Amino acid sequence: MESTHNPDRYIADLRQILSQGRKRIGILVGAGAPLALRTNSQGKLDQNGSPLIPDITTLTDRCLESLTGNAATAANAIRTELGDGANVESILSRIRLLQQVLGKIEVNGLNSEGYEILGKEICKTIGEAVGASLPLERNAYHELISWISGTLRSHAVEIFTTNYDLLFEEAFENARAPYFDGFTGGSSPFFDPVTVASDDLPARWSRLWKLHGSIGWALENGSVVRGKGKLANQLVYPDHLKYDLTQKQPYSALFERLKDFLLTPDTLLLAIGFSFRDAHVCAVLDEALSMNSNTAVIAFQYQNLDKEEPAKKLALLRPNLSVYASDGAIINGIQGNWRIGEPPKNWLNIRASFWGKRNTENSVFLLGDFAYFSRFCALAQASDIRKEVSEQPAVIEAAASTNINKAEDE
Questions:
Q1: Quick count: other Cβ atoms within 10 Å of Cβ 90?
Q2: Which of 6, 212, 272, 296 would you label with 167, given CA atoms 20 to 30 Å apart?
Q3: For the chain, how are helix, strand and coil distributed in percent, rounded to 5?
Q4: Contact, 310 vs 345, CB < 8 A?
Q5: Separation of alpha carbons 45 and 32, rounded Å
Q6: By the 8 A CB rule, do 393 and 371 touch?
Q7: What is the DSSP-derived secondary structure letter of residue 12?
Q8: 3-state DSSP call for residue 313?
Q9: In angstroms, what CA-CA distances link 34 with 42, 231, 277, 387?
Q10: What is the pLDDT of residues 14-34, one digit of tens each?
Q11: pTM
């Protein structure tokens, strides 16, 4: 018998968890999140505009198109060698490997020094592309921070992101909501791995962990510092497995923090805008989920289930990872299409926050889009959802489930 899942069941539980503030909750945010914000040439929100920050494919094209001469030849040769899955991050990893091993030997016209310069040029282009500021109008980032800071919590919400931009920092600061990102100090804030590991700050201080580094980070006197402005881009996506001990420290500590979070009993990690193609992050997820059956990960995916192969593969292996795609889900290791049932009393207005039409003839699960996801979190605290849902922008979507309930055959 073909399995189906009723989204109403899982969303009801998730909404209750989000509204209470008692559970330990983390959010894993990938490059798909800022794609939900589209702006026009004046930097204002516009559904017909361009993404605030380009997707990884567009960013890769932009980086390589900015190169000339031997640098362009070498970078394109690496991209060809890496195959269809090559992107700017995997290209940077290969560049840094060549930088370390070549010495004066040349490959594709560049020696170690040439590849070092090439890596800096690519990081410069990345910094320019992801240095966009958050629009002044209220948007998905503001709504997510409103949910985080609007509830008295037993445990701090922890945001793990692979993005280099400063959008979360701006959203926290716009809301005057305190957060800790691993750095402390005034003149040149330095990374403090002890505080990251001990996690003894008040729960009202949210945590923001930049797993792949960030614009604004720099290396000074052998230490990583932040607050150096958007033009500081040399520590964007360092390959933390190959760097020396000094440069390795922030990234190894942050990945260890992700692992520790997942190994803590009774935790819930919500993934949004994350493709599950990052081998380093997925290795941590896989190991932690296998070690701790009391933690749950819910992946909200934008596309149909058959196009989310990396997430599907891990979810079928680890039943405490659920995948919510637009047309179906994998819950407790059981794959099935969505099938909504008869709604409970007063549920239709709530259902409209996660289920509806999105450029398709049929209604789909909407929470795979960061804007819908953020709005759903904000609405979890609303006493009267009817007015809130009716005002929700037509640009939002996402997918969810709590790993608490069993999948249902209907």
A1: 19
A2: 296
A3: 40, 15, 45
A4: no
A5: 17
A6: yes
A7: H
A8: helix
A9: 17, 20, 18, 26
A10: 999 998 888 999 999 999 999
A11: 0.86
Name the burial class of residue 245, with classes exposed (0-12), middle (13-18) and buried (19+) by CB atoms within 10 angstroms of its CB: exposed
Q: Is 97 left (phi over 0), alpha (psi -120 to 50) or beta?
A: alpha
Full DSSP string of 132-167: PPPPSS--HHHHHHHHHHTS--SS--EEEE---SSH
399 contact partners, CB below 8 Å, separation of at least 6 = 299, 300, 301, 323, 324, 325, 326, 329, 354, 365, 366, 367, 368
Q: What is the 3-state secondary structure (H, E, C) of 256-292?
A: HHHHHHHHCCCEEEEEECCCCCCHHHHHHHHHHHHHC
Which residues, at least 6 apart from 171, have a Cβ–Cβ distance to it below 8 Å? Answer: 134, 141, 142, 144, 145
Give me the chain's average pLDDT, please.
Answer: 86
Helix (H, G, I), strand (E, B) or coil at 182: coil
Q: Which residues, 6+ apart, have CB-to-CB distance to 255 below 8 Å?
A: 211, 240, 280, 281, 284
Q: Name, in order, each residue with C-beta under 8 angstroms of 65's C-beta and a sequence gap of 6 or more.
A: none
The residue type found at 64 is: L
Residue pair 225/232 in contact by the 8 Å Cβ criterion: no
- Closest to 175 (Cα-Cα) out of 217, 153, 204: 204
Q: What is the pLDDT of residue 403?
A: 38
Alpha-carbon distances of 161 from 197, 236, 281, 389, rounded to whole Å = 17, 13, 10, 28
How many whole angstroms separate alpha carbon 68 and alpha carbon 73? Answer: 8
Question: What is the Cβ-side half-sphere exposure of residue 215, based on CA atoms within 13 angstroms?
Answer: 22
192: three-class secondary structure by DSSP: coil
**What is the CB neighbour count within 10 angstroms for residue 11?**
24
Q: How many residues does the chain have?
A: 410
Cα-based distances in Å from 291 to 231, 264, 316: 41, 10, 16
CA atoms within 13 A of residue 42's CA, in its CB half-sphere: 5
Q: What is the pLDDT of residues 76-118, one digit of tens each?
A: 999 999 988 788 888 988 998 899 899 999 999 999 999 999 9
What torsion do the CA atoms of 241, 247, 252, 254 make, to the nearest 10 degrees? Answer: -130
